[in-house]
């Protein structure tokens, strides 16, 4: 029974339904379940390719009491829009404390070189190149350090979008609309063409409206209100404002015509085109249509909204516009695409444009999310099973059919493969409120509270978990068998290795890392050789190489010879020869075993170390 709902796992709202897991091949989940007496157990759940689930109930362990605080009920599932901002290079400029403060973020700009983020305290910061004053910091200076956008302090952000200038639109939870940045075509909606150094409140025709969503094209803007009305303004050379003319629109104007008395639920902008989804699943498009990005069956521009008859009979939930192509997702999880296809961004297997919607098949999987951005020629989608696909212009390559990635989200696709590496939407930042399995194991090393075994070395105890040792090391798999005395012991004495060395070895089994000075790494190298731990042996050699000095060089050479580490032996020998005069003055050199010393002198002589 699952503690969170006290219902069978397959019926718990915290778990994905079984049908959502189908189509996944050979996945293994660690599941935390609770027995009737509230004791936490860790079980492995195997999901086969046909979606059937098998549970291994044979592995309860006291380690679960730690995992209980670290894992959600079944498996870590990212919420929609959750992302790890460290995948965007710009955020590597920030320290851990600043990263931890971020709740929402957006990377934009001609080269992905500007960023805006919101903190958990609803403060807004910006940093980067500041082209066209798009950071909104009140000046035109670029900055690699975040600057607070003072006039947005305390405003809870719900939607953000950017243009190519770039200009920026931001909607708050209170329904307010702010704009700043490039304004050469009145895309800020303030009735002027003056650039906005700081966010300005856009009120014209919106004073009594609650803005819930914003979208930007190259140089035009759109806003969606809580009552389903669409407003547009800015550059209008192709009719993208939907006003019925090609005159620029200096202030927000309601897009009416076919949308009069209709309720829109979503908006999206291409470079110079606009799209809207209605509450009945219909899709309307207007603006530039030279590549067929409006999906109307022709390539003529539209000055007012026109319904896509190619989607008649379908209920569209989400629309996403690329530079000059469009994606649509229906309520049945089907994906449709149309428009430009120079880079394969439609996913049809060719590079031919399509003037009307065509269905895109993604491994016969149900699609739950689509992604595109007006500044890129790339597309991405996520399936119900959590698989993420990409196609189009991916790092300069034309991918003409959906390609399975091993990324966690469509946001990650744009971070890793988009040109430029921008965000297709504002993302909520994922913070590790819970620990991953690896982090949990690291935390529980040498923990008396959860351990079921301890080693005694030099009179000190090291607390471990027998199951972890058996999983990670062949030596312990052999040791903890019924015919070994150690299998019944609660304390195992170790006298052949020192405490620092043995503790480092056990910690390695929990963390895959070693943190020892070179001198102690020699002892760990001995242990790794004895236990046939080849990876640990390589790590020790690496530590020794990085820590070699004139003073310890000969001792390290001796250890390399003793433990048959040929690569390390050659490295230490070369170091000693290169620093021969200094090395021969050290105590370690003269205290060395006579045979090893003779061998070194003969070998160094053959290398020409004693030539005048």
Automatic annotation (TrEMBL):
Keywords: Repeat
BTB domain segment(s): 451-518
Organism whose genome encodes this protein: Paramormyrops kingsleyae
SUPFAM superfamilies for the chain: POZ domain (SSF54695), RCC1/BLIP-II (SSF50985)
Gene3D superfamilies: Potassium Channel Kv1.1, Chain A (3.30.710.10), Regulator of chromosome condensation 1/beta-lactamase-inhibitor protein II (2.130.10.30)
Pfam families found in the cross-reference section: BTB, WD40_RLD
Protein name listed in UniProt: Regulator of chromosome condensation (RCC1) and BTB (POZ) domain containing protein 1
RCC repeat residue intervals: 122-173, 175-227, 228-280, 281-332, 333-384
Superkingdom of origin organism: Eukaryota
């Amino acid at each position: 029974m699952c503690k969170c709902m006290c219902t069978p796992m397959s019926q718990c709202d915290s778990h994905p339904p079984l049908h959502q897991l189908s189509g996944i091949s050979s996945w293994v989940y660690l599941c935390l379940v609770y027995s009737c007496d509230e004791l936490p157990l860790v079980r492995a759940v195997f999901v086969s390719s046909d979606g059937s689930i098998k549970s291994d109930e044979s592995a309860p362990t006291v380690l679960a009491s730690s995992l209980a605080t670290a894992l959600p009920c079944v498996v870590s599932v990212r919420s929609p829009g959750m992302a790890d901002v460290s995948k965007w290079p710009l955020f590597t400029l920030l320290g851990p404390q600043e990263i931890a403060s971020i709740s929402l973020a957006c990377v934009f700009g001609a080269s992905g070189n500007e960023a805006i983020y919101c903190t958990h305290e609803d403060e807004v910061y910006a940093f980067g190149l500041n082209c066209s004053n798009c950071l909104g910091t009140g000046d035109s200076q670029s900055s690699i350090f975040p600057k607070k956008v003072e006039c947005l302090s305390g405003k809870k952000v719900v939607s953000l979008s950017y243009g190519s200038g770039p200009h920026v639109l931001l909607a708050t939870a209170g329904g307010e609309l702010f704009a700043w940045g490039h304004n050469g075509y009145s895309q800020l909606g303030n009735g002027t063409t003056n650039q906005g150094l700081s966010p300005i409140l856009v009120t014209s025709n919106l004073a009594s409206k609650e803005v819930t969503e914003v979208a930007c094209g190259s140089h035009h803007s759109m806003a969606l209100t809580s009552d389903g009305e669409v407003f547009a303004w800015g550059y209008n050379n192709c009719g993208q404002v939907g006003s019925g003319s090609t005159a620029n629109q200096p202030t927000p104007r309601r897009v009416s015509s076919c949308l009069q008395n209709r309720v829109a639920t979503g908006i999206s902008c291409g470079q110079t085109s606009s799209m809207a989804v209605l509450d009945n699943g219909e899709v309307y498009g207007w603006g530039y249509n030279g590549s067929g990005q409006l999906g109307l069956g022709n390539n003529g521009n539209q000055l007012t909204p026109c319904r896509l008859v190619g989607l008649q009979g379908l209920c569209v939930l989400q629309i996403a516009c690329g530079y000059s192509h469009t994606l649509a997702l229906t309520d049945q999880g089907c994906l449709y695409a149309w428009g430009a296809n120079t880079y394969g961004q439609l996913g049809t297997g060719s590079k031919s444009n399509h003037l009307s919607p065509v269905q895109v098949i993604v491994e016969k999987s149900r699609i739950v999310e689509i992604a595109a951005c007006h500044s890129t020629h790339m597309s991405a989608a996520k399936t119900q099973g959590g698989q993420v696909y990409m196609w189009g212009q991916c790092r300069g390559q034309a991918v003409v059919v959906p390609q399975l990635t091993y990324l966690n989200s469509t946001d990650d696709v744009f971070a890793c493969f988009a040109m430029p590496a921008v965000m297709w939407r504002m993302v909520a930042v994922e913070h590790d409120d819970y620990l991953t399995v690896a982090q949990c194991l690291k935390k529980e090393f040498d923990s008396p509270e959860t351990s079921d075994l301890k080693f005694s070395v030099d009179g000190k105890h090291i607390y471990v978990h027998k199951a972890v040792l058996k999983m990670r090391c062949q030596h312990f798999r052999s040791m903890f068998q019924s015919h070994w005395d150690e299998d019944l012991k609660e304390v195992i004495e170790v006298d052949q290795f020192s405490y620092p060395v043995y503790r480092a070895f056990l910690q390695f089994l929990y963390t895959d890392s070693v943190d020892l000075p070179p001198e102690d790494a020699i002892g760990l190298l001995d242990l790794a050789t004895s236990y046939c731990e080849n990876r640990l042996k390589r790590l020790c050699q690496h530590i020794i190489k990085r820590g070699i000095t004139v003073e310890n060089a000969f001792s390290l050479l001796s250890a390399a010879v003793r433990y048959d580490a040929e690569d390390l032996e050659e490295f230490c020998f070369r170091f000693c020869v290169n620093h021969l005069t200094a090395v021969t003055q050290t105590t370690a050199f003269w205290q060395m075993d006579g045979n090893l010393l003779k061998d070194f002198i003969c070998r160094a002589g053959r290398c020409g170390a004693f030539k005048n």
